[in-house]
Structures are given as C-alpha cells and as structure tokens.
Design brief:
Length: 469
C-alpha cells in the first residue's frame, strides 16, 4: 500500500478533495437511511447494526481510505441523533453551521497546536485577538479584559473556581439548586469545600436566601449565578446578585454557557444586565452560537486575573525565547496540546457579523415562543412557563410522571423525536431545547402531534410503551 497522503502543505487539498466527496456522500446516505432525528429501535437495534457495519475496526489488511470513510461515516450518520433535524431538541446540543464545520476542517488539516508559538504562528495571533474581542463584549468598560478558550462550560467553570482558589485559598462556593452540576464537580476536583446550595423556588436564585448565606458563612465567598439554566433556560437576577456580592465582599462567577450569546442580540441582551460585574464569566458557543464542539470561553475583566494559569516548560516557553519576543502560550490553558478552536468561531463571527448572529438568536427565541403558544392553545397539553431563552417545558395534562417518562422513551425508541426531561414544581416535564434556526411552524405542529398521539396510545394501551431502559 502506498504511503497515505497528508492533509497539509500545497499537496494536501488535492488529496482531500476526493476524500471529502466520499465523506459528504456518506453523510447524505446515512442521514437518508436514518430518515428521522435518530435511529429507531433503541440500543438493542442500533448497537449491533453499528458494530456489524464497522467491524473489524483493526483489520489485518486495510480496506483503503474511500471504503473506510464510506463504511464508518455512513454508519455514524445512520446511527446519529442529528441536531439538524427539527425534532432532535432534547439538549443544549446545537446543529453546527456549515461554515463553522468547514472552518473546523481547515483547523484539522493545518493542525496547529496551541501550546507554543512555533507550532501555531498565525493561529496564536488569531486566538489572542478573538479572545480579547469576546472578552470585550462581556466587559466593555474595563481596560484589558481577556478570555481563554476551553472545551466547554464544564472546563470554563472549573477554571473559574481554580482562579478564585488561587486568589483566596479554599474559597466557599455558594450557588443555587438550579446551578449546573459542573460546579459541584469542580469543587471536588479542586479540593474545595462542598458548595452551599440555596433555594431556587421559582427557578432562579432566591435573593433573600443568598443574603442570609453571605451573612452567616465565613469568608471568602464565591457566588455562582447562572444565565441560562440547563433545565429551564432561566436567568438569575444578575444585577441584584452582584449588588449582594458587593455588599458582602464576595466574588461572583456567572455561568452564562447557554445565555451568554444573548449579548449579540439588541433585542435580548438586556436580560444579561449585570453580567459585566462578575469576576469571571463562562460562555459556550457550541450552544447558542452554532459551533461544532468544542467552543467554550472563560472571560475575566482584567488580563492579570489569568496569571495563575502560567506554567513553565523549557521546551515550549524557554525564558530566552520569551524575552526574545516569542509569545508564551502555556498560560492560555491547563491543557498542553489543543486545537485552534478560535478559527471556526472567528469565521462565524466575521461571516455573519453582529446582525447575522443576532438574527439567528432572535429567530431561535421566536420559535420557542411559538411552540409555547401552540402548547398553551392545545387542550391536552400544559406549559410550564414562557421560555426565557429557547427551552420549553410541557407535559400532557392527564399524564402522571411515569407516563411522561414513557412518552419520551417511546419517541426515542421509535426514532420519532428526541426530547429531554426536567423536574420542576415537583413534576416531570418534557423538555424541548430549540436551537435550530431552520425549524418551521410546521415542524412544531408535527412535534406536538407526535407527543399527543403517543400519549393517547399509551394511555389507551399502556403495554405499547416499548421503552428499554
């Protein structure tokens, strides 16, 4: 077998073109075979079919690039939960824009590693400029805001707690019961005290309970607020929380992984009033930014807040190299080798501009409100609340929690829809997280029809709920 060609260099594009044609055909064929938002049959069907199509993964003699790409990409596409389908709406799992995916291909082909300048000369400049620009969106009134790129909200939240620990020692985290699970996990990883969880009886942080906790607990404190909760998409009262933090001398971190991109929408950015008062902010553009994962951000109001991340490894950032003017990149992440995720983000922002991104955000939120209207008007469905961002909770009015869970699993097993689940007001709700700006009113009507027909079937014939665990 001849030596396989490389993706980079002047010869790389010539080698890639026929392979990409094979990949694109396989993506199309796999999606056509699937025929819906996810494959029907559940794990008992999908697992053996996928293994049959892809094994042996390590043959004695290779099949060649086109056959391997055709087999595995087709199998993966056929067995995918495809967020580009309007009925795949369970999670904060966005359908990536084609232009962002295309930029990601360039990043893979060039393969710069963002841990030293000599591996990423231009990419390091692009990343520095992008992170400064995004940090300035969050902190427009500070002289030197900065940000680092992360794998997502979880890593960004962990970094925020790490930086707070480095400033204050074993800081006590205070968060509400609506806070993302990554906060508690980060305290465990960092050896910090377990978070103090205060109530969120209306879905957002209770201000009186926060005031009481800040008064009674020993300092130093780090309050974690949320702009876009995972279950309901609600936004804590950021400005009021920042006021309490200022009164009690506490620091504030805001997890805006979901809601942060509202900054780009003149219509909706007022919901984030007070965001710039945080000591750190998490943003995640592979949610309401339509990026392929990963595309997380941790922003801080001043560049020097990132100083604790500095790390020295002579083969990557030797002192004399740094003194000679080579940028030191190791302090831009806890990771060493990492991808140039800045490229796809920068391409998207430049291609769409502020108005284009605002249009996607506004369109998506309007779609969520339209779904809420349809649910409100439907005689057998109940709406939890008007959507704050793009998450809609609803349930059949005459179904108990067991039936709601069974409806969800039945839709999954039949390959009809991917809906999430969330507990609120001591009940289980179906969750539609709408992130597809191409979703139409007809798609929403069809989704409601799927839910109501499945509900009627299960209430009439309970044994029809073929829902493996």
């Amino acid at each position: 077998m001849p030596t396989p060609p490389l993706a980079g260099g002047t010869a790389g594009p010539t080698a890639l073109r026929p392979l990409l044609d094979t990949v694109l055909t396989a993506l199309h064929d796999g999606a056509a075979r699937r025929g819906g938002p996810l494959p029907a049959g559940g794990p008992d069907t999908v697992t053996p079919r996928t293994r049959s199509a892809t094994h042996p993964l390590i043959p004695d003699h290779g099949t060649g690039p086109h056959q391997a790409l055709r087999n595995l990409v087709t199998a993966l596409a056929e067995g995918a939960a495809d967020p580009a389908h309007p009925h795949c709406a369970a999670h904060l799992h966005t359908p990536p824009l084609a232009l962002a995916a295309a930029a990601d291909l360039a990043a893979s082909a060039l393969n710069p590693s963002m841990d030293s300048w000599d591996q990423a000369p231009a990419a390091s400049t692009l990343e520095a400029d992008l992170t400064t620009a995004l940090a300035t969106e969050i902190y427009p009134h500070t002289p030197s805001p900065d940000a680092v790129i992360t794998t997502g909200g979880t890593e960004a939240n962990q970094l925020a707690l790490l930086l707070a620990r480095e400033r204050h020692g074993p800081i006590q985290t205070i968060c509400a019961t609506n806070t993302h699970h990554s906060i508690a996990r980060a305290t465990w990883l960092l050896g910090l005290p377990e978070p103090v969880a205060i109530p969120a009886p209306t879905g957002v942080m209770d201000l009186a309970a926060l005031d009481e906790a800040l008064t009674e607990l020993h300092r130093p404190h780090l309050v974690v607020a949320t702009a876009g909760t995972t279950d309901t998409g609600e936004i804590d009262p950021l400005d009021a929380i920042a006021d309490l933090c200022a009164t009690h001398g506490a620091e504030l971190h805001i997890d805006a992984a979901y809601g942060g991109p509202l900054l780009f929408s003149p219509t909706h950015r007022t919901r984030l009033h007070g965001l710039d008062r945080a000591h750190s902010v998490t943003l995640d553009l592979h949610k309401l930014g339509w990026q392929p994962a990963s595309a997380g951000i941790l922003a801080v109001p001043e560049h020097h807040h990132l100083t604790p991340l500095h790390h020295h490894a002579p083969y990557l950032n030797a002192d004399d190299d740094t003194e000679a003017g080579l940028p030191d990149l190791l302090g831009r992440s806890l990771r060493t080798t990492r991808r140039p995720d800045a490229l796809k983000i920068a391409v998207t922002l430049q291609a769409l501009g502020r108005t284009g991104l605002a249009d996607l955000i506004d369109r998506t939120i309007a779609t969520a409100h339209h779904l809420a209207d349809l649910i409100t008007q439907h005689p057998t469905l109940a709406l939890y609340d008007r959507p704050t961002i793009s998450t809609v909770l609803f349930r059949p009015t005459h179904a108990d929690d067991h039936t709601v869970a069974t409806i969800r699993r039945t839709l999954l097993h039949r390959g009809h829809a991917v809906l999430g689940r969330a507990h609120a007001e001591n009940r289980l709700w179906l969750k539609a997280t709408l992130l597809n700006p191409h979703t139409t009113p007809e798609d929403l009507h069809a989704l409601i029809d799927l839910v109501t027909r499945t509900t009627t079937s299960l209430l009439t014939h309970p044994t029809e709920g073929d829902t493996p665990r």
